[in-house]
Structure formats: structure tokens, C-alpha cells
Amino acid sequence: MPELPEVETTRRGIAPHLEGQRVSRVVVRERRLRWPIPEDLDVRLSGQRIVLVERRAKYLLINAEVGTLISHLGMSGNLRLVEVGMPAAKHEHVDIELESGLALRYTDPRRFGAMLWSLDPHNHELLIRLGPEPLTDLFDGERLFQLSRGRSMAVKPFIMDNAVVVGVGNIYATEALFAAGIDPRREAKGISRGRYLKLAIEIKRILAAAIERGGTTLRDFIGGDGQPGYFQQELFVYGRGGEACKVCGTELRSVTLGQRASVFCPRCQS
What we know:
- By secondary structure, the protein is an alpha+beta fold.
- The chain is about 25% helix and about 20% strand.
- The strands form three sheets. Strands 1-6-7-5 form a four-stranded antiparallel beta sheet. The chain has a four-stranded antiparallel beta sheet with strand order 2-3-4-8, covered by helices on one side.
- Strand 3 and strand 4 (about 70) form a beta hairpin.
- Helix 1 (about 5-20) crosses helix 6 (about 195-210).
- The two termini are about 30 Å apart.
């Protein structure tokens, strides 16, 4: 599933080609995504100029002069730029055609993504309860420490809770906990303020590094320019269960936490 760095990579790839451009038409070949694409999307968006392309958590907000297209890539979706009129392959469900001659094409084999319309996107039901962005000053270790008090859940699903902080998905939570030396199975309430301060720093560092490297391509993800991400070459633990730890050589262990696979080093993480 594309996580925050992959979505931010997509935003950076498409924004220069969308912002300031006028939409000529919207072609919808398949409306049945996680939620149905609005029947009148073409009428609402066509003729409007795109003002700004933003990201909130793992949602892309394509802001027009009046209204915003909220897009989510689901488990296997991607947005990329193609020439208007380029034949569509299977699973290429939507084209947003621009007067520039380019089209923003949405592909989603599993159809778990979304394309919704809103006049007030930041108060939309999908976004209004989200926690702070991890790369802003609103998120830090003190927030993690305070919110963890009394929480008996394991620390990994705790930092993956979008009400705590957005965008810390499975890959980056696994890597950040390794970098901070924290066992992902530990109860959130049992971790000290100092260790949370370090964990927040590592979350920021790893997410920023992943964005700069174009995200992580493990299966389906490509960026807005059609290129894969390269951060997978720097993964220390994610997806490496049974292999040797790159730091100490200990065999990495795999467990399930919050219905998600998690890999950790029993020596480096305590």
C-alpha cells in the first residue's frame, strides 16, 4: 500500500504539471472504487483551473477554483501523467485531461482507492479527525509520550494510529522502531519520555529520507513520473524476517501486531 512518502512523491511529481492548468474534461471508465466516483465529476471539474495540489496524510487534494478532488491511492493505485488520447489499459479508470495536452491518469487494479469531490475538504469526514503531519512542528516525542499514558496497546500500532500522527504506515513504523531501538511489542504506556523523543526524531528522519528517494517500491508503486521509489534499498528490517540483522547479525524475528506483520531484531530492540 502506498504510504506517506509514496503519496508525497506522487504529489511532487504531478503538481508542476497540474497547477495553473485548466481541465478540459474528465473521462471516467470505472466508477466503482472504494466509494463510487461522483456521477457529476466531469461537470464539476471541467473548465476549472487547478490552483494547488496538496497532501493531507495519504490523501491528495487537487484544489480547483471551486471545490477539491480528494484522491486516495488505496492498496495498489497510482496517478501518473500521460498524453491526452493515449489508449487506456486495463485498470486505468480515470483521466483528468488538461488543456496542456497532458492527462492525469488514475490506475487502481484492486479498486480500493477513492476519488471524491468536496467544497470543504479539510472538514471532510475522512480528514477531519486526522492527527498532525509527522514532518511538522505539531508532531514530536512529547506528543507521543502524553498520548501513550494509560495505553496498553503495543507501541507499533500506537504510532500507526492516524489520530496520534498521520502517515506512519507499516514500513516506516517498523524502520523507525528499529532505528530508535524499541521492541515493537512493548506496551505504549511503558516507554519513557526520552525514548519517545528519540522515536519521533527517527520517524521524521526516515520519512524525510524516503521522500527524497522517491518512496519505497515493494510491489505496485510508481511515482507521478512513472518511476519507482528507491528507499527499499535502505530498509533495515521491514520484509527481512529470518535474515541477519545488518547491525548485529542476529536473526530478525517476525510477529503479528495489530493484524500487521512486524519484523524486529531481538538484540538491537528492547
